[in-house]
Recover the amino acids of this structure.
């Protein structure tokens, strides 16, 4: 009777300490760094999901000019996503062939558009954060990440200003516009703390000078949000129980629906070209 | 989409590159000057058309009356000598 093979202990531990985490294709993986890939997916997923959300406005915005503004922002974001996801691997494959649990975007960007005020509240909170992040990412020790951030930072500066303009105009507008903007900000507010979360992956990359520690600019962020809200004659929303976990693949039910729309075509017709 | 009927109209001028004049390219609706500039940027310079933008309230433009086109413009038709190319320049004149 053949003897049973020896049960190897701590296989997982040995695998993770092996080069390239013991990937079967380690010899061909080259300088693939799982932590950098993870970080680029976070950055890319934020941009792609918000870009997809904004493009839902196409043809539905309050006026033609605003329709174009939103489509322009969406295209900028999708371009940034392409660049970040290309660092992590094949951008198309990640965009169209990943299931919901593998997405690493924050909760804020996957939230439904709501009305125009909520869309602008979300844009304002996100773009202000993204701009502060990209400003610092331009000095990342990873040259590829630094280059993408340097290219995108001007685009995002415009998004931030446009969104802040709308927050001010709606907040300091009519009774109804102010109420809608207040509602929009309150809806989004519980998703803000996630933007400043620091987990192990991020912490390790911060130590290597590759990622930016968002907590380093949280104070500046809150001050900037407060400055614009004051100009908009709006109060800072009351603190709410924060919703966290997007970076680990925990998402709201809305993301699955968004992906179903976004991924439908390449999954149904895998070889389609245009 | 509504037509933005409660927003005033603004005329948009784009300078395509340094040294050239701003040229009229179209118009946008916007509630105020800052947003008019943003709308102009998003509508007319998204394909690298320009380096500078002007927006002017359409209401501020004073236009000639089309019915007066005859008296305003036709008299110039028969006066081709007003073009500098009408006159022959002697070859010895280098700089003019």
């Amino acid at each position: 009777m053949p003897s049973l093979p020896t049960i190897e202990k701590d296989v997982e531990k040995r695998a993770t300490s092996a080069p390239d985490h013991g990937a079967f294709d380690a010899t061909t993986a080259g300088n693939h760094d799982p932590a950098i890939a993870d970080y680029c997916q976070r950055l890319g997923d934020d941009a792609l999901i918000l870009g997809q959300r904004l493009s839902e406005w196409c043809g539905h915005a309050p006026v033609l000019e605003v329709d174009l503004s939103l489509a322009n922002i969406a295209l900028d974001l999708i371009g940034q996503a392409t660049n970040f996801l290309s660092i992590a691997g094949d951008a198309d494959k990640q965009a169209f062939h990943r299931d919901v649990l593998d997405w690493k975007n924050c909760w804020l960007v996957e939230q439904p558009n709501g009305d125009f005020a909520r869309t602008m509240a979300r844009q304002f909170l996100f773009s202000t954060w993204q701009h502060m992040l990209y400003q610092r990412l331009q000095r990342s020790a990873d040259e590829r990440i630094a280059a993408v951030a340097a290219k995108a930072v001007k685009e995002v500066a415009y998004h931030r200003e446009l969104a802040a303009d709308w927050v001010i105009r709606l907040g300091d507008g009519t009774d109804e516009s102010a109420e809608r903007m207040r509602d929009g900000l309150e809806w989004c507010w519980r998703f803000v703390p996630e933007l400043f979360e620091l987990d192990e992956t991020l912490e390790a990359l911060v130590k290597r000078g590759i990622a930016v520690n968002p907590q380093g600019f949280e104070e500046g962020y809150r001050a900037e949000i407060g400055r614009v809200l004051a100009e908009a004659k709006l109060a800072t929303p009351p603190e709410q129980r924060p919703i966290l976990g997007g970076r680990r693949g925990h998402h709201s039910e809305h993301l699955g629906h968004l992906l179903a729309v976004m991924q439908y075509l390449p999954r149904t017709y895998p070889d389609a070209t245009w | 989409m509504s037509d933005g009927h409660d927003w005033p109209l603004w005329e948009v001028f784009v300078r395509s590159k340094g040294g050239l004049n701003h040229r009229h390219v179209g118009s946008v609706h916007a509630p105020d000057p800052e947003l008019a500039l943003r709308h102009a940027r998003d509508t007319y310079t998204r394909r690298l058309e320009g380096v500078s933008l002007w927006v002017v309230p359409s209401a501020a433009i004073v236009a000639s009356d089309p019915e007066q086109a005859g008296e305003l413009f036709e008299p110039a038709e028969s006066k081709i000598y007003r073009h500098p190319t009408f006159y022959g320049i002697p070859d010895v004149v280098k700089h003019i």
